[in-house]
Amino acid sequence: MERVIIDTDPGIDDAMAIFLAASAPDRISIEALITVNGNTDIDNATQNAFTILTICEREDIPVYKGRSKPLKREVRMCESSHGDDGLGNVKVNKGKIVLQKETAEEYMVRAARENKGILTLMPIGPLTNIAGAVLRDENFAKNIKRIVLMGGAEHCGNMSPTAEFNFWHDPEAAKIVFEAGFEEIIMVGLDVTRKAFMTPAMRELLYQINTPISRFIHQITRIYVDSYWNKLKNLGCELCDVLVSAFLIDESVLKIKEAFVEIETDGICCGTSVVYSVDIWTGKKKNCYVAYDLDVKTFFGLFFEKQFPAFKETAEALIEHEYRV
Ligand code: BDR
Ligand code: CA
Fold first, then answer.
1. Is residue 212 a contact partner of residue 55, using CB atoms and an 8 Å limit?
2. Which bin fits 73, alpha (ψ -120 to 50), beta or left (φ > 0)?
3. Which of 18, 97, 129, 240 has a beta carbon 3.0–4.6 Å from 66's, enabling a disulfide?
4. Three-state SS at 8
5. Is 127 in the pocket of ligand 1 (CB under 6 A)?
6. Are the CB atoms for 243 and 193 separated by under 8 Å?
7. Distance from Cα 116 to the centre of ligand 2, integer Å
8. 7 φ/ψ angles, rounded to the nearest 5 degrees
9. How far apart are CA 296 and CA 320, in angstroms?
10. What gap in Å lies between CA 153 and CA 131, rounded to an integer?
11. Mutate to test the pocket of ligand 1, among 37, 122, 124 (most ligand atoms within 8 A of CB)
12. For the residues of 256-276, what is the DSSP string, one character each?
């Protein structure tokens, strides 16, 4: 059982990641959601956290509000592919906001101190809050069991040819986190999330499954799918953050390798994660595991089976068809 704090900027794929994590209480205990500016501003992100928890009937999970802007920068842009409100501009009954009194950083530092070596951090947005906690308490990194994050890439980018959004948005925070001495960091970046592509037929299956969660995912992904079409002429969408939940449920979905990762905070490659994964780079002490391959059929099988078990066989047949070689 992994006791997890989800640090999120919801976010369409963030919502899907939270739904998947919540669907596996035998593997993941969600201790709290903390919110951060990223895909949308902090007020939208926080409202969206409550909406998501309401839809999956997990209003028992406490929510702590995090930072409203990157550590050292102004907000350069929010992610337009998530809509103006972060959740695809869909009309839905918004969840009631019942915020905890502590800030996200106060909570994380306290929780980590009270549960030394027990808690896993699951950042699926910019790393601003976690860097803030590192700066606030010199023992914070030591007190955390591990971090499994979505961000970065070894070989590609989505904000520039080399930089991924979460690291690009707050590169100074990402740098602090990678240099903080956490016991274990697992970086799930674009190299693998690009392979987690939900096809139009899978999205249609979500509509036909017809539960509140499946219909909500179908609705919020409309604008997300449009943005993939407009930018890349691809039909479907990438489920970036969802891979982190999947990995925490079943580690066999990803192949990982040990590496030294350094974050660039300046110049044309600002926000890039530089991955030293082969041994010709001497003197670089490994600080991370980087995901480099995805078992796509296992991933989508798990996605449907955990959340919509009655449709396991239908989903498996569809996945087999969509990913036939
Ligand atoms: C990351 O940026 C956001 O758009 C997604 O929610 C994900 O966390 C992908 O680069
Ligand atoms: Ca996100």
1. yes
2. beta
3. 129
4. strand
5. no
6. yes
7. 27
8. -105, 110
9. 10
10. 19
11. 124
12. EEEEEEEE--SGGGTTBEEEE
Mutation test residue for ligand 1: of 8, 12, 13, the one with most atoms within 8 Å of CB = 13
Containing domain of residue 86, as a range? 2-199+237-295
Confidence category of residue 131, pLDDT binned at 50, 70, 90 = very high
Answer for the pair 18, 10: CB distance below 8 angstroms, yes or no: yes
* 125 CA distance to ligand 1 middle (Å): 7
Angle between helices 104-114 and 128-136 (to 10 degrees): 60
| Neighbouring-strand partners of residue 256 | 291
Q: Tell how far the Cα of 183 is from the centroid of ligand 2, in angstroms.
A: 23
Alpha helices in 157-232 (DSSP H): 165-169, 171-179, 190-193, 200-209, 212-232
* Nearest partner of 211 among 29, 62, 60, 19, judged by Cα: 19
**pLDDT at residue 78 in the model:** 66
If one counts the domains in the chain, the total is 1
Q: Which residues pair with 300 in a beta bridge?
A: none
- Mean pLDDT value across residues 154-167: 96
Tens-place pLDDT, residues 174-189: 999 999 999 999 999 9
Q: Which CATH number goes with the domain that contains 110?
A: 3.90.245.10
Taking the C-alpha atoms of residue 273 and residue 9, their distance in angstroms, rounded to an integer, is 20
Spatial distance between the Cα atoms of 3 and 112, rounded to a whole number of angstroms: 11
Residue 79: is its pLDDT beyond 80? Answer: no
AA identity, residue 60: D
Sign of the dihedral through C-alpha 94, 214, 21, 244? negative
Angle at 90 between CA 61 and CA 158, to 5 degrees: 85
Residue 92, pLDDT score: 86
